[in-house]
Amino acid sequence: MKKNRVIPVLLLKNGWLVQSREFSRHQNLGNPIDAVKRLSKWASDELIYLDISRDDLYDIRRDDQGYRNINSFLGIIESISKEVFMPMTIGGKIKNLHDIEKRLLLGADKISINTEAYKNNSLIEDAAKEFGSQCIIVSMDVKQNENGYSVFTNFGKNDTGHDPLYWSKRMESSGAGEILLNSIDRDGTGIGYDIELLDQISSKCKCPIIALGGVGEWSHFKEALEKTSVDSVAAANIFQYTDQSVFLAKKYLAKKGCNVRKPDLLKL
Amino acid sequence: MINKSVCILDYGSGNVGSVFNLLKHMKLDAVISNEEKVIQNSSHLILPGVGSFGSAMEKITNNLPLEVLENEVLIKNKPFLGICVGMQVLANYGLEFGKNAGLGWIDGVVDIMHSADHPLPHIGWNNVERTQESMLMSGFEKINDFYFVNSYCFIAKNINNVLAETTYHEKFVSVIGKDNIMGVQFHPEKSQGAGQKIITNFLEY
User: CA B108 to CA B99: how far, in whole Å?
Assistant: First the structure.
């Protein structure tokens, strides 16, 4: 039986791994390559890297740790793909088919597209035709307002006025292979997923939904897997703070009877 | 692993890089090439693959010296491992975007998976269950998780060639083998420790 995946999300800002809260404050968590090695040892099922830099300045700046300075997000990705042998999704600043191809050639398995899916009507369809639906993820940031939910783009700044279910269905029929569903309200809060939102979308879409936003304890993963039809559970902050985080999360879920891959600690 | 050298067959498939990175990480002697000499001088051959059956076969026919390859694999019995579409092209023909001839090294047909209400492509970690003893799957527990991305699967004519199966609504063949010719539907280069073990086992052949 196919497993529900447990997926760490890494937010990279100007070459640094950061923590995000409600899409506005970003606290520096250090070197992304070290983080990736840790997450790999703890047998993550997959990794999602999102570049949230607002300009094009990148610098890992840690010569003391034995890495040369790597000047771009793509350089960081290229280094990571030589160390990590699990599926990688890359998102951020993707504008056209050429941007997608460049990332796939560096070792990305999937590409996550957010703002540009809204700005460019045919991008998802063209991308799915060219590279296959299996590598096209549409990332959708959702915020609650007085009328219900709305899809936001541009790092949560632009309200599209689209209902998330309408947008997911539209993206799915355009060829999106998966949807990364993120709650802006829950981002960095640790109070748990927006279960209502996850249920609304995952019960109506055929393509796999990846839940994101709000996880503060392992039981939040279980809640989403039990109460909704999401395929995968993702989180950012919680995986960075605990030693062996992914291993412990999967151990918890396996013990509770969730359909996850056997927890493991790998030697790299 | 003395004197083992792997040639990753270069025919214009997108994922040769990840397979190469894995072999290098495992400190193996590996090259990406389509040159006759390199193919002849290597001890093991790997054919990676992504994309559709027809386009993979077209690239294989255009970019690989097929006569040399068939001489090495079918006559000299050089160990060969096909990955994903690289496994599928071992069949007689495939039915993705029309009927296309395959290499025909292992009898069978490649057709779309019967997944009912499960979405295709089949993406993610799934169980691989051994159906018989084999070198490639030796040392594994009966059931292991590997990473898959596929919509089509290999329907083998001869059940003796089926080494392991996976269930996604229906059972499909996830590992195939006929003497020195082997194929895996999953991606060892994305399957962490289990994937590395498959490569190690292959090199023991």
Answer: 13
Q: Does domain A5-255 have CATH number 3.40.30.10?
A: no
Boundaries of domain holding B149: 5-204
Computed on alpha carbons and rounded to an integer, the radius of gyration of chain B in Å comes to 16
Residue of A nearest to B167 (CA): A1
Query: pTM of the full predicted structure?
Result: 0.91
- Contact across the interface for A177 and B121, Cβ inside 8 Å: yes
Q: What is the pLDDT of residues A206-218, one digit of tens each?
A: 999 999 999 999 9
Chain B 28-87, residues with CB within 8 Å of chain A CB atoms: 50-51
Can you give the CATH number for the domain in which B158 is found?
3.40.50.880
ipTM of the complex: 0.86
pLDDT score, position A98? 93
Interface membership of A1 toward B (CB under 8 Å): yes
Q: Is the dihedral of CA B36, B41, B44, B48 positive or negative?
A: negative
Q: Among all residues of chain B, which has the CA nearest to that of A42?
A: B192
Contact B129, B165 (CB under 8 A): yes
- For residue A111, give every residue at least 6 positions away whose Cβ sits within 8 Å of its Cβ, in sequence order, or none: A89, A90, A91, A94, A100, A103, A104, A127, A131, A135, A136, A137
Containing H/E element for A150?
A: strand A148-153
Residues of B with CB below 8 A from A177's CB?
121, 123
Distance CA A5, CA A23 (A): 24
Domain count, chain B: 1
